[in-house]
Design a protein that fits this description.
Elements (H helix, E strand, L loop, with lengths): L1 H36 L2 H4 L13 H9 L2 H32 L5 H8 L7 H15 L5 H25 L3 H9 L4 H12 L1 H16 L3 H6 L8 H6 L9 H36 L1
Helix pairs in contact: 1-13, 3-13, 4-7, 4-10, 7-10, 7-13, 8-9, 10-13
Length: 278
């Protein structure tokens, strides 16, 4: 009974701390969304935590008076291709490293994370000079290749820990039943790895969709800009369009909200499994 009494204040303190962290984290998003819907006369003239009156004027201006639709399409192309390439090569490399007898496999996987030791700016500048000589500067292809320097090592490292903890006996049982090595991989390994695959896909999409540094250095023309760079260009010294900026930020965040809302279960399972098995 005494233990229960002592634990009650601790639980209340834990709940209070969790609530404060949740509010602190969610409030900027809440403010961004309601600011994008407020009328121009009330956006900067008064401060209110309550929403309303609402208007879609900022979204209309954003889509009609700026290059936001083009930037949105560019971001979708870059993020989708980055995720697809990351998934294919991460699965192939991670599976080969865990199932084949390769000397220094831990060193190989660790070396792939070498890029994370440096700020993205230090990697983007030399990559730009290389891509400029290859004719890939100011192209979406060059931007995708630069994003892969971050997403591919992360995917290989995460799936390496995931595949390493998966018993090889499951594949052997499938091959005994008549499956080929490829069939066992497709019918046994991949379905069991679904939480890890979804986690890698979410992280890769997040890194590519929200990237600013690589896109700023690699892309020079307005036609090839992605959303973060295009939105940042709207922040001028004399014409600060806060309403359109809030609306653009909300539209950038929507795919991320949708992905986490639909795939939260797999995402949490993948993080837990990767942390334990890695």
């Amino acid at each position: 009974m005494a233990i229960a009494r002592r634990s009650l204040p601790a639980r209340l303190g834990l709940y209070l701390a969790a609530a404060i962290i949740a509010v602190y984290s969610a409030f900027p998003i809440y403010w961004m969304v309601i600011s994008s819907l407020r009328e121009p006369t009330s956006l900067l003239s008064r401060v209110s935590l309550l929403p309303g009156p609402f208007t879609l004027e900022y979204y209309k201006n954003l889509l009609e008076l700026t290059d936001y639709p083009t930037h949105f399409v560019n971001s979708v192309i870059v993020a989708v291709v980055t995720v697809a390439v990351t998934m294919v090569f991460s699965v192939m490399i991670a599976y080969a490293v865990t199932r084949q007898r390769i000397r220094g496999k831990k060193l190989i996987v660790g070396a792939m994370l070498y890029a994370y030791m440096f700020p993205p700016l230090l990697i983007a500048i030399p990559m730009f000079t290389i891509f400029a000589q290859l004719g890939l500067s100011d192209t979406l292809t060059g931007l995708i290749a630069s994003h892969l320097t971050l997403t591919l090592p992360l995917g290989v490292w995460f799936l390496w820990g995931f595949f390493k903890g998966m018993p090889f006996e499951l594949e052997e049982a499938a091959m005994v039943d008549g499956c080929t090595r490829l069939g066992a991989f497709l019918r046994v390994v991949l379905p069991l790895s679904l939480p890890g695959l979804i986690t890698v896909a979410i992280f890769s999409f997040l890194l590519s969709w929200t990237d600013y540094t690589f896109a700023l250095i690699m892309i020079g023309s307005d036609a090839n800009k992605t959303l973060p760079v295009g939105l940042a260009s709207m922040v001028g010294s004399f014409d600060l369009r806060w309403g359109e900026i809030m609306a653009g930020s909300t539209l950038i965040a929507l795919p991320l909200f949708a992905a986490f809302a639909l795939l939260t279960q797999y995402f949490i399972q993948g993080l837990g499994a990767g942390a334990v098995k890695g």
